[in-house]
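PROTOCOL LOG
Step 1. Enter all chains and additional molecules of the complex.
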Amino acid sequence: MSTRTRPDHRSIAFGDWTMNPVEAALTAELLLAALACAVAAVAPASMRRYLAGIATIAMAASGIVAGGLALSGHSGRLSAPTALPTVNLTLAPDRLGGLFIVIASAVTLLAALYAIGYVHGAADSRSAWLAFILFTFGLQMVPAAGDIITFLLAWELMALGSGVLVLTDHRTRPQARSAALWYAVMTQLSFLLILAGFAALASVAGATTFDALVTVSPTSTTGALAFTLLILGFATKAGLVPLHIWLPRAHPEAPSHASAVMSAAMVKMGVYGTLLVVLRFMPGGPAWWGIVLLSLGGISAVYGILQASVTSDVKRLLAYSTTENIGLIFLAIGASVLLASYQLTAASQAALLAALLLAISHAAFKCSLFLGAGAIVAATGERNLDRLGGLGVRMPWTAAAFGVAALGAAALPVTSGFVAEWTLFQSFIHGATRDAISVAVALPVAVAVVALTAGLALVTFVKLYGIGFLARPRSQGADDAHEVSHPMRWAALIGSGAVIALGVFPGPVAQVLASAVGIGDVATIGLGGLSLPSLGVLLDPMALAITALVCALPVVVVSALSARRHPRRATELPWGCGGARVSPRMQYTATSYAEPLMRVFDDTLRPEQDVVVTHATESRYLVAQVRYRQKLSDVIEVRGYRPLLEFVDRLGVVSRRLQNGSVHRYLTFSFVALIVVLIVVSL
Amino acid sequence: MNWTATAVALLQVLVATLVAPLVIGITRQTRARLEGRVGAGILQPWRDLRKLLRKETLQANGVSWISSIGPIVVMASSLLVAALLPLISTVALPFVPDDLFVVVSVLLIGTVAVALIGLDVGSAFGGMGSSRHMMIAALVEPTVLVAVYALSIPAGSSLLSSIVATRLDAPAVILSPVSLLAVVALFVAVLAETGRLPVDNPSTHLELTMVHEAMILESSGRDLAWLELGSWLRLSALLGLVANLMIPWGLATDATVLALVVGTIALLLKLTVFAAALGAGEVFLAKLRLFRVPELLAGSFVLAFLAVTASYLVT
Amino acid sequence: MSDNLYAQLISLTAGTLLLTAALIVWRRSLRASVRLLAIQGIALAGLVAVLGWHERTIELVLVSLLVLGLKAVLLPLVLSRNVLNHDDDREVPRLNPTASLIFAALLTMLAYIVCRPWMGDTDDPTSRAVPIGIALVLIGFLLLITRRRAASQLIGFLVLDNGIATVAFLTATGVPLIVELGASLDVLLVVLILQVLTGRMQVKFGGTDLDDLTELKD
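Step 2. Run joint prediction.
Step 3. Record the structure below.
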C-alpha cells in the first residue's frame, strides 16, 4: 500500500515517508489486522483464543487511537490504487467517521476480551476467529472509508464475516442455518439498495469520492431517489421495521461476543450511513425526509420494544430491544432534519446531539447486556427466561454488570440512556412551533411514542433482570450456575462502567459528540453536567446523585439505628399467605409477567393460544389435565413476509417451465436476447 | 442563592414527610366518616409507622440485596421528588432542575425498586403485583409526559417551577381548555401512579385485584415502614403538584421567611382539601377491572393529547 | 362583557363539547352516554347564549333556550326511556374503546389541521372554536361506524348534529331563528321515528344489534 502524504505540520517521519498521526494509526491497524488473521490461522488450538484474542484487542486499540485522532479533528488519507485506472481505495475518516470508528473499536475490544474467556468448541475454531477478525476489521473500516468503493468493500467484509459467525453453531442448532439464510438475504438486499443509491449519487457527481458527492442537491429528483434507496438500505442494516426481520433471528444464533458486536456496533453502521446522507452528502434535506425518518424510527421503536416486552428468550429480547433503540436514534435524526428544514436550529441540533448520545449509550449498554446474556447461557445452559432465576446470588459480578446495563436500557438516572432521552425530550419541548403544521403534529406524536417506548422498556428490563436474576431458580441449570471467568466478567463490567460514566459526566462527552457534527452550542457545567445554552436547559446528573444521597442519608441512619436493636431475621417465607413455600414453579415466569401487556396489545401482537382440557374418565365434570400453549410469532413476518415468499415460490414454479433441459432452447434464449440488445442499442 | 435554594428544598422535604402520613389519615378518615364508620383518626398512619419501625424485620431465605436496599431506594426517590417539585416555593435548586423528565425518572426509580422487591421473594403474589404494577407504570408514562408537554408550551419551559410560576402570574391560563384538559389528564395519571381508586384499591388485600399490596406482602418491620411512607410521600408530593397547578396562590416565589411560612400554610390547606376530596371521591368509585385500566389510561392520554393539539393549533 | 371573559366562556363551552364527545366514545354504558349527551346539549346552549349575549341579539338567546330544551332535556329523555326499557345497558363496540379514543384524538387533530387555512391568524375566539365543531362531526361519524346498538347509533347521530350546529353558530353567527327551529324539529322527528322503529325491532327480534340487520336486506 502506498501512502500519499499531505502537508501537515503534525506529521511523523518514517524514513523517507512522512505520515500524520491518523495515517500512522490506520496503517498500524491494517498491519495489526493482518497479524491477527495470521495468528488466528497458525496458532495451536490450545493457545488460539489467548493469542488471537490479544491480537484482536491490539487491532481494536489501534482503531480507538485512529478514531480518536480523527474525532479530535486530525485528518489523514491513506489510498491504494486498484486495477482500474481512475479508482483508488481511500481511507479518510472525518470527525463523524472517527466517532463511529471509536464506537466500533471499543465494542470490538470488549468483545475480544470477553471471547478469551468465552469461546470454546465451534466458536474457538480457526474459521470462527478469522471470521470474527475480518468482521470487526470491516466494521472499523466502514466509517473510515473516504470513497464509495472502499465503503462498499468494507461493508461486504463486515456482512460476510458476521454471516459466517451466525453459522458458527450450525452443527448443534439447526435454527442457525435458517437464521443465516435470512441474514444473508436481507444483508444482500441492503447492499444492493446502498449500491443503487450510491450509483445514483455518483452518476450526478461524476466521481466516487465522498468529497465529490456533496454536489448533489437534496431537492433534485436524483437526490430524492438516492435518499430513498440509501435510507432503505441503511434501515435494513439497522434493523428497522419492517426490514428488521433478520435481526431477532441472527443475533441470538451468533456466539455472544459476536452478537454483542453485531448489536452494539454493526447496526450502528446503518445509523452512520444515514448520518452520512443527511449531514455530509446532502445537508439541508427537505421536511419530508425528516418525516420519513421520524415515522420509520417511531414505528420501529414501539414495535421493537413491544415484541421485546413479551419475549422470553434472553437474546431474542435483546435483539428486539436493538430495533427499539435504533428506532429511537432514527426518530431523533428525523426530528433533527424536520426541525432544521423549518430553521429551528437550536432544537434541531439538540435532536442530533440526542441521536449521537443514544448511539453511544446503546453501544455501551447493549454490549454489556449481550455479554451478560452470553455469561448466563454459558453458566446455565438456558436462554429461556422462564427457566432462569436466582442468578443474582450465584453470579454477583455478572448480575451487577447486567443490572447497571439494564438500568441504562430503561433510561433511568443516572445512566447514559437517561441523558440521551432527556436531550431528545428537550429538543421536542423547545421545537414547539405553530408556524409549521408538520412540526406541530409530529412533535407531540413523537413525545407520546418516546414516552410509550420508555415505559415499555422499563417493563422489559425489569422483567429481564427481575425474572433472570432475582427470586429462585426455575430449573436445575439455573440452580447450578456459577460465576463466569475473569475476562468475561471484566468485559461486561467495563461496558457497564461506561454506561454509568456517560450518565454521570455527560457534559464533556456531549461536547466531543457535538464537535463531531459541527454543533457549537454545548457546554459543561458543574461536575460534568450537560448544558444546552441555546435552549436554556441544563442537567447535572452528579448534582442529582448527590441530592439523592443526601435524601437517602437520614433513611439509612434510621435504618441502621433500628437494625442495631432488631437485626434482620431470616425465615423461610415471612407471610406466604400463611402457607409454606412450595416449588419454585409457583413463581411468576417471564411469560406470565408479560401476560397483562400481551392482553392489552392483543390486537397488535396476535398471539396464538390453545387451551386443551382433558376430562377424567369417570366424569365430564372432573378435569384431569389442562394444557395451555401460547405461541408468539412476529406479526410482520407472518402477515408480510410469508405471503411474499409464497408468491415468489409460485413464481419460481411457473418459471421452471422455461427450463426443460434442452440446449436448443437455452441457445434460443441467448439468441433472442442478443437480437433485442442489438435493436435497443441501434435505436 | 445556592444555600437558600437548598434550605427551601430541605424545608419541602421535611414538611412533605411530616404531612404525608396525615394526608393518608385524612383520606381514610373522610372515607370512614362518609361510610358511617368512626375511623381510626388522622394520626393512625403515624402510629402505624412508629409501630413498624420498632418491630423486628423478617426476611425470606435466599433473597438478594434488593430486598434490603430496595425500601431505602423507594424512600429516597420519594424524598428526592419532594425536594424537586415546587410544593412550597418556586425557588428551584441550581444544577438540579425540576425538569419534568427528571422528576418522572426519579419517580420511576421508586417504581422499579418496588417491582423488583415484589419479584425478589419468589412468591406467586409478588410477581403478580409486580407485573401489573409495571404494566400500569408503562401505560401511564405517555399521559404524564404529553400532559406536561401541553402545560410546558405556554410557559416555554419544561421546568415545573416555571410552569407553576407562569400560572401564578397569569391566572387566566388556569381555566383555559388546554390547561384544564392537561391537569385532568395529569390527575388521572397521578391516581394510577400512586395506586389509588379506580386503578388500585389501597385498602384491600384481595388476591385477584391487588397491585401495590401484592408486592409488599412479604415485607415487614422497617422495610415495610419505608415502603409505606415512600408511597404516601409520593402521593402527597404529586397531590401537592396538582394542587399547585390548579390553585397556585400562596406559593412562595422568593425565599423570604414570611413567604415560606405562607407557602407552607397554603400547602397544608391545599393538601387537606385535596386529601379530603380524594377520600370523598373514593367512596363513590369502584375499582376498575384490571383490563379496563388501559382504557382509563387511554382516556387520560387522549385528554392530554387534545390539550397539546389545542395548545399548538389554537393561539 | 369583557372580551377576555367572552373568550374564556367560548373556550370553556367549546371545550366541554369536545370533552363530552370524547367521554361518549370512552363509555360503554348507554345510560352514561345519554347523560353526557345532555351535558353536551347544555354546553351547546351555553355557547349559543354566550354568542347571543356578546352580540346583543335576543333571537340567539331564544335559540339557546330552544337548544337547551331540545338537546339537553327532551332528546335525552326520549333516549333514556328507550334505554331504561330494557336491562342490558352495555354497548359492545366493534372497535375497542382504547383504539376508538386514540382515533378520536387523531380526528380532532385532523379537524384542527383542516381548519387552519380558514382560521388564519385571527384572534377571534369564535373562529378558534370552529375546529371543535368539525371534530364533533368527525367523532359522531366514528360513533356511527363503530357502534352496534341502534340506541348508540342515535347518540352518534346526535353528536354529529351537535357538531353541525356548533359550526353553524360559530361561522354564520346567527342562524335565523326559523331555520334553527326547522332543523331542530327535523332532528326531533328523526329521533322519534327511529325511537319507534327500534322499539318495534326490539319487540320483533329481541335485539337491536345492527350487525344482525344485514339479514333483513331481502
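Step 4. Note key features.
The mean pLDDT of chain C is 78.
Residues 3-213 of chain C form one domain.
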